[in-house]
């Protein structure tokens, strides 16, 4: 069987408010991995301690990444017309689809979701998270909550599901179109970008926002977050 497996790490849960931190993907031909990609994405957002604790990805690591525009173009090229296998695949797709809409490139995909398959076919474990399924099936990950390691674990999970249930339930392994239709996000204004940079410099925050990668609403939310934590700059009006 031929397909790609792709996994993302994000700064949060919302494709409208949060960004992609890391991409990991592998190409499968005749059930074997033949090629892989892995890279960080500099989404311009502040990485919370909770995200760093979960993934091990720091602000400094994210700052070495490529831009969101470059990321979606690399992903679109790698995926091509292949079927996508993922765990809760619509979640990852929603983040990539938002970037694709912002960049003005097509990104319509079909997929097989190991979360949906596990829920339909397996009685145990009760919770079908990738973490629980890996523990149940003794699938080892060198690094948990890192994109390429999770993609490889998802590949092993899918192979087990197909070997175990493919002959008995072939209909559940038919790829389905992914449906998510976000609106294009407006780029940040020059005034917003300038104010955010000045705010970071004024408070001497150890964070250099990649403002060129941020939308208008993203800069506004980041500015609000900094003001709530550190305060305003005296004598200056907000730019959002």
Explain the layout of strands and helices:
Layout: E1 3-10, E2 20-29, E3 32-40, H1 49-55, H2 59-63, H3 68-79, E4 84-86, H4 89-103, E5 110-113, H5 114-121, H6 130-137, H7 147-165, E6 176-177, H8 190-202, H9 216-230
Parallel strand pairs: 1-4, 4-5
Antiparallel strand pairs: 1-2, 2-3, 5-6
Helix pairs in contact: 3-4, 5-7, 6-7, 8-9
Number of strands: 6
- Biggest sheet strand line-up: 3-2-1-4-5-6
- What's the story with the biggest beta sheet? 6 strands, mixed
The arrangement of helices and strands along the chain is: EEEHHHEHEHHHEHH
- The quaternary organization reads as single chain
Provide the β-strand percentage band. 15-25%
Mean pLDDT: 92
Shape: elongated
Determine the N-to-C terminus distance: 51 Å
**Compute the gyration radius: what is it?**
20 Å
Q: Note the total helix count.
A: 9
Q: Which spans of ≥5 residues are poorly predicted at pLDDT below 50? A: none
Q: What is the percent of helical residues?
A: 40-55%
Structural class: alpha/beta
Q: What report would you give on this structure?
A:
This protein is of the alpha/beta class. It has 9 helices and 6 strands, in the order βββαααβαβαααβαα. It has helices at 49-55, 59-63, 68-79, 89-103, 114-121, 130-137, 147-165, 190-202, 216-230, and strands at 3-10, 20-29, 32-40, 84-86, 110-113, 176-177. The protein has a 6-stranded mixed sheet with strand order 3-2-1-4-5-6, with helices on both faces. β4, α4 (89-103) and β5 form a beta-alpha-beta unit. α6 crosses α7. It is elongated and about 70 Å long. The N and C termini lie far apart (51 Å).
């Amino acid at each position: 069987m031929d397909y790609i497996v792709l996994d993302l790490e994000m700064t949060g849960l919302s494709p409208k408010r949060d960004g992609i931190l890391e991409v990991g993907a592998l190409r499968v031909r005749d059930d074997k991995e033949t090629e892989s990609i892995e890279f960080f994405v500099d989404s311009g957002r502040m990485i919370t301690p909770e995200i760093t604790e979960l993934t091990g990805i720091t602000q400094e690591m994210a700052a070495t990444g490529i831009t969101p525009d470059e990321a979606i173009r690399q992903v679109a090229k790698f995926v091509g017309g292949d079927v996508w296998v993922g765990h809760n695949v619509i979640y990852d797709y929603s983040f990539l689809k938002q970037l694709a809409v912002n960049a003005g490139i097509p990104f319509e995909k079909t997929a097989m979701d190991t979360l949906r398959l596990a829920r339909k076919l397996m009685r145990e474990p009760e919770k079908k998270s990738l973490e629980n399924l890996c523990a149940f099936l003794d699938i080892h990950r060198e690094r948990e909550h890192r994109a390429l390691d999770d993609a490889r674990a998802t590949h092993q999970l899918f192979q087990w599901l197909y070997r175990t249930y493919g002959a008995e339930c072939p209909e559940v392994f038919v790829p389905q179109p992914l449906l998510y239709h976000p609106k294009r996000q407006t780029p940040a204004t020059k005034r917003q970008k300038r104010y955010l940079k000045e705010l970071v410099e004024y408070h001497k925050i150890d964070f250099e926002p990649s403002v060129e990668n941020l939308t208008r609403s993203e800069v506004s939310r980041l500015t609000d977050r900094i003001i709530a934590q550190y305060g305003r700059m005296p004598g200056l009006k907000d730019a959002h």
